Amino acid sequence: QAAIEVVSANASHSRLQYRTKEDHVFSGRSIRTRKDVVSFEVSSSLYADDGAFLYESRGDLQEGMDLIFRTFRRFGLNCHVGRGGSKSKSEAMYFPAPKRSYQDANTLPLEVDGGEVAFTQSFKYLGSLLTFNLDDSAEVDARVKSASAAFAPLRKQLFGSKYVKLAYKTKAYESLVLGLLLYGCEAWSLTLELKRRLQMFHNRCLRIMCRVTLWHMREFHISQAELETRLGLKALDFCLAQRRPRWAGHVYRMSFDRLPRRLLTAWVDHPRPRGRPQFHYGHGLARD
To answer: Strands 38-42 and 50-53: what pairing?
Structure first.
């Protein structure tokens, strides 16, 4: 924390500027709003020994990295960089502006502290995947893969067994599989396509636990809701719509001088391109 405060005090680059208002508007706000508007800066995001530092340009990033590495060394802290062909644990990520291509920018490795810091298109931070296009598709695919890896080893002995009661299968599925599938969903911006991917995996698991195939469902007119009733499970849409507003409520009730609360209703004071904006968290929260 002391090192970060020294970095902030000595930084000469411009910082990311946001505007916010103490209300409950999460999407569809006009950027011309001026009444009771609060401006604030965001320069870093810190958690334990992890940190993310935000810059507007490659020049600012290079200058900021030099300052961070130099300052941290004064405090006896080392930031890892790639040397001699080894990969750097510290990585940079470029987020293109709307309707801009990733390939248009200079994403060659940055030279710092006698080594290199490479650019990446995805980065795992606090268990969740961040991608350059601000899309949750990679994160959803990773969640499905993790949940599938937990479900598959127990398929014969537990989930697909006719000797195990449905109530026991449900308990195991909720604690082992569903927890992995929906980890971090409180911050997702789920389009209908991403929701469909989650639903397909969930439906397949329910059929296996009830020992029902797609043929059985067509032949005997068994609905998905009926399988959920047999198992005593809520619909996946309900689970999602329950978790996200609950977490957003915790953030909304924070004091307005705290950064998460400000970002919840924040926007960037910059002209928007023509067309519908990218589906974001506020849209999903309003839908929930």
So the answer is: unpaired
